[in-house]
Amino acid sequence: MMIKHQKNYVVLPQNYSQKIITCSICKTVCYAIAALFVLAAASKITYLDQFEAKLNDFSILSAFPALLAWLIPCVEIGIGVLLLFRKTRLSGLYASLTWFVLFTFYLSLVLNAHMPMPCACEGLWLSVGWHTQLLFNSVCIFVAISALLLHTKMRRRLLRYKTYG
């Protein structure tokens, strides 16, 4: 952002409010995704025994369910934390997009193979079907890509318009 100093007052660029709105939207999306990851991790940790048992029932993952039962929530919390801070937000957006893509791929693979779902889901996810979960993940992928594009656009503009005191 370029700020022009004239006499004793500051003149902001005309598109300053648009930049503020864009930044606010990006932050809000990042905070919402972070909350989603932390809530998902908290649910898995709360029902850790069930989650581990469900992972053990799934033949592909049965070799190391105890490790995965802790690793998955830890990764989700880590992604959530990355999204909270300005300096790590870009890494968090890339990580969340990757996580959403991997989980969506996993869901579609399991749905197409007619395998039992290894999930100890609680709350809302008990009432919706797996196809709804797949649709939700697809929307999350779209939202993460949009936030990533907004964030990179903002960073490019900030690099272009450095303010000199």
Summarize the structure.
The protein is mainly alpha-helical and 165 residues long.
Outline the structure in words.
By secondary structure, the protein is mostly helical. It has helices at 16-46, 48-57, 65-84, 89-112, 124-127, 130-160; strands spanning 4-6, 9-11. The longest helix has 31 residues, at 16-46. It is elongated, with a radius of gyration of 20 Å.
Give me the Rg, rounded.
Answer: 20 Å
Give the overall form: elongated
- How far apart the termini lie comes to 13 Å
Strand order of the largest sheet: 1-2
Extended strand count: 2
Low-pLDDT parts are none
Please tally the helical runs, counting DSSP H or I stretches of 4 or more residues: 6
Fraction of residues in helices? over 70%
How are the SSEs ordered, and which strands pair?
Blueprint: E1 4-6, E2 9-11, H1 16-46, H2 48-57, H3 65-84, H4 89-112, H5 124-127, H6 130-160
Antiparallel strand pairs: 1-2
Helix pairs in contact: 1-2, 1-3, 1-6, 2-3, 3-4, 4-6
Task: Quickly list its features.
165 residues; mainly alpha; two-stranded antiparallel sheet; 2 strands; 73% helix
